[in-house]
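PROTEIN DESIGN WORKSHEET
SECTION A - STRUCTURE
LENGTH: 372
TOKENS:
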């Protein structure tokens, strides 16, 4: 794709220019784009959005229509898995969204909603008590809101043993409040393997929420904060930085790219990326030990939807299913397991109708995974 970027983006648009030039307009991406499949509009598929961003970066007027089509993108990055030319669409759409935020005013209600999401969700001092309050009054909440407030879990007891081997874990901003046992369960599994999971109290949101909402500077502050919080543990020699939320993992693995122009953090960010591993990259190495720990007699069936941030964002496919099967579980996947479930971070709040349609589509036709 030939490009002629406008003066306003020159100097900072080299990355966008390189990505745009890789696109050969083949349209393979449309076959796996959830929003294109649902809406049938070329501008709601990756190829159409790329054309919109190209025109915008070349100086064409930026309209609310452009904003709407970029807003409808789930950023699932399924198109990246399909693209034969290696177009890094996820990075391009973040550039495009930043330009749109600068050039197109949003209605007040949208601005308020986005600012609240960017301010509340990453801030555990606000979000945690708000979630506890919501859980207390969950039964009287409106149905749509009640569906987003999980039933309180009975807390698991965290491990108390100390081990010589240590790995660092990102607790996250939303997960400790909505699904607290995920972090504790992670610690318990590694404890059984003789590895101590430690956390950095000052670490917070990975940066994904603010980044995807177009608050890039705030997102980079989140990134730098985490690097500062983790660095003492890195210097002490932790073996890895464990990610049990693939959305966070996909973002943390972009830290070196996000801070590539920051001389104070670029080298540290690369070190963080080198240490960051998803559970799906670590646990299969302990398959034998885990099999001995489980020792199941009855066959249990589990439903698993591969997260987009794992299979497309991190390009990790089949490992979770394989490990669960090895441990004696009967795994069921949705028929179109490569498609997005519709959650996509804050997308389910800002685009509830499209999100629901994606969820309905991804929750049908459960089947056994194919052998890899």
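SECTION B - SEQUENCE
RESIDUE ASSIGNMENT:
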């Amino acid at each position: 794709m030939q490009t002629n970027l406008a003066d306003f983006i020159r100097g900072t648009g080299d990355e966008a220019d390189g990505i745009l030039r890789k696109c050969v307009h083949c349209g393979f991406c449309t076959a796996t784009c959830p929003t294109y499949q649902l809406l049938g509009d070329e501008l709601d598929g990756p190829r159409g959005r790329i054309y919109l961003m190209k025109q915008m970066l070349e100086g064409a007027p930026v309209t609310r229509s452009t904003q709407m089509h970029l807003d409808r993108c789930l950023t699932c990055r399924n198109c990246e898995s399909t693209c034969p030319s290696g177009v890094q669409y996820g990075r391009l759409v973040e550039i495009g969204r930043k330009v749109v935020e600068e050039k197109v005013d949003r209605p007040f209600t949208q601005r308020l909603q986005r600012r609240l999401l960017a301010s509340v969700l990453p801030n555990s001092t606000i979000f945690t008590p708000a979630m506890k309050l919501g859980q207390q009054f969950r039964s009287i909440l409106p149905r749509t809101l009640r569906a987003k407030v999980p039933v309180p879990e009975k807390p698991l007891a965290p491990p108390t043993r100390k081990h010589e081997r240590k790995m660092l874990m990102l607790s996250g901003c939303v997960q400790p409040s909505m699904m607290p046992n995920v972090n504790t369960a992670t610690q318990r599994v590694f404890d059984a393997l003789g590895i101590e999971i430690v956390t950095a109290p000052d670490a917070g949101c990975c940066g994904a929420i603010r980044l995807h909402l177009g608050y890039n500077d705030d997102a980079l502050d989140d990134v730098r904060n985490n690097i500062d919080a983790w660095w003492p543990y890195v210097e002490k020699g932790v073996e890895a930085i464990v990610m049990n939320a693939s959305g966070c993992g996909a973002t943390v693995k972009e830290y070196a790219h996000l801070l590539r122009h920051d001389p104070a953090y670029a080298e540290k960010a690369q070190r963080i990326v080198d240490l960051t591993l998803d559970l799906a990259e670590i646990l299969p190495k302990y398959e034998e030990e885990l099999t001995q720990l489980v020792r199941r007699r009855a066959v249990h069936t589990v439903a698993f939807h591969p997260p987009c941030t794992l299979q497309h964002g991190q390009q990790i496919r089949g490992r979770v299913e394989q490990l669960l099967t090895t441990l004696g579980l009967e795994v069921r996947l949705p028929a179109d397991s490569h498609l997005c479930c519709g959650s996509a971070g804050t997308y389910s709040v800002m685009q509830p109708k499209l999100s629901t349609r994606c969820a309905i589509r991804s929750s049908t036709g459960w089947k056994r995974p194919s052998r890899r």
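SECTION C - NOTES
The two ends are 35 Å apart (CA to CA).
The chain has 22 helices and six strands.
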